[in-house]
Design brief:
The structure is a single chain. By secondary structure, the protein is α/β, with parallel strands linked by helices. It has 3 helices and 10 strands, in the order ααββββββαββββ. It has helices at about 1-25, 30-45, 135-140; strands spanning about 45-50, 50-55, 60-70, 90-100, 110-125, 135, 150, 160-165, 165-170, 170-175. Strands 1, 2, 3, 4, 5, 6, 7, 8, 9 and 10 form a 10-stranded mixed β-sheet that branches. The chain is elongated. The N and C termini lie far apart (about 80 Å).
């Protein structure tokens, strides 16, 4: 029985060391173009992403640095005349976004995020001449392909996506008013 415990402890230690070595040496940033393409398709707007990294913080930690949703080159009727567009501020910008993903549900094609942390988000809200409010970045993030808690994987299978906690720090809200 003692020998079984020693073997189990040794195997556990090897697994922990292997995962640690993998996370320290894995270059997630090489998948940035793939991630940007999939985000753009899911959101329906152009996306900018400066860096993508992977780590461990009580789960797999995926970090996006310099994430932005920018206005499409084709004029959006909600943003026309509101000063949003080429050369202007993005619809939604986040300095860094971290998601702590639980590893075991990934085996069942479920993405369980125990915590999502948004650092320094900038969101643009506008009011058009007809007195309608537009959460520009949030509408782009919801996008036409978004569905509550579910999204389709590249192979057509449905993937469950749940977030347990969300923390936002140092955010900025930009207000544009076209009523005058």
């Amino acid at each position: 029985m003692k020998r079984l415990r020693v073997v189990a402890a040794a195997v556990s230690l090897l697994i922990v060391l292997a995962v640690g070595l993998f996370l320290m040496t894995f270059d997630a940033d090489r998948y940035r173009p793939w991630a940007v393409a999939h985000l753009e398709r899911a959101i329906g707007q152009p996306v900018r992403l400066d860096r993508l990294s992977l780590g461990w913080r009580q789960g797999i930690a995926l970090r996006l640095d310099g994430f932005a949703i920018v206005e499409d080159a084709v004029a959006d009727p909600h943003t026309k005349g509101l000063g949003v567009g080429a050369g202007r501020e993005p619809l939604l910008h986040v300095e860094s976004a971290s998601a702590l993903v639980r590893p075991l549900p990934l085996l069942r094609k479920e993405v369980r995020v125990s915590a999502m942390i948004l650092d320094a988000p900038r969101i643009h809200i506008s009011r058009d001449a007809q007195d309608r409010l537009h959460l520009l970045g949030m509408a782009a993030a919801a996008g036409p392909a978004a569905a509550p808690g579910r999204m389709a994987a590249s192979d057509g299978a449905v993937v469950s996506f749940d977030i347990d906690a969300l923390r936002i720090t140092d955010g900025v809200l930009h207000w544009t008013d076209a009523m005058t």
